[in-house]
Structure formats: C-alpha cells, structure tokens
Amino acid sequence: MKSSFKTIGLALAGLGMAAAAVPASAQAWQSINQRQRNIDVRIDQGVRNGSLTRPEALRLRAQFRDLSNLENRYRRSGGGLSVGERRDLNTRFNRLSARVQIERNDRQNRR
Asked: Are 54 and 110 in contact (CB under 8 A)?
C-alpha cells in the first residue's frame, strides 16, 4: 500500500513539474513580429539611457532594417513564411538580439 501511494505521489510530482515547464516554454517562444518589437524597444531604451552610443544605435538599426527587408522579401515570394525561412529569420534575430545585448553592456557611454 505504501508503494502505491509513493508511486501516485511521484506521478503527481511529475505532472506538476511538467505543468510548470509548459508556461516557461510558451513564454520563450515569440512571434517574429513580437521579437522585432522587443529588439526595437531595447534599442530605443539603450539610446535613452545612454548604454548605446549613436554609432552603435545606427549600426543596430541598419541591421534591424535589413532583417525586416529580408522578412518582407520572404513573405512576398510565397505569401507566408516557410519553416526554413522562419528558422533563418529566428537565427538572424537571435544574433541581432545578442548584438544588442553586447552593445548595451560594453560600458561605452554616450557623451
């Protein structure tokens, strides 16, 4: 009898951990448009608080614009985004997001 309670307890604990993991993974995924908004806001904040210099912000904005243009080309070519196009954009947005993070934390202050 004790072993069946233990088994039930372990099963419930496993379900609880699985349920807790679902919201975290759902939050980790964002649409491409949401990622664009987040990156745009982070660049704006960096300019306002001085963590991005003007040349850094201009360079990041140019990269952001290039990615937006690429997304538009992908969408025009086939209507929607294919799995490969989405994967490519996500990879490129990951790189841009990392670059924004690096530039904002490189301790170069705007003068």
From this structure: yes
- Token pair recorded at residue 109: 């202050």
Residues 6+ away with beta carbon under 8 Å from 2: none
Instruction: Report the distance separating Cα 73 and Cα 66, nearest Å.
Output: 11
Whole-model pTM? 0.68
Query: Within its chain, how far is the Cα of 77 from the centroid?
Result: 25
> Which amino acid, 7?
T
The number of angstroms, rounded, from the C-alpha of 91 to the middle of its chain's C-alpha atoms is 10
Q: What are the boundaries of each domain within the chain? A: 1-30, 31-111
Query: Distance (Å, rounded) from C-alpha 83 to C-alpha 88?
Result: 9
Walk along the chain (111 residues) and give the pLDDT tens digit of each residue: 555 545 555 444 444 444 444 333 333 456 888 999 999 999 999 999 999 999 999 999 999 999 999 999 998 987 788 899 999 999 999 999 999 999 999 877 655
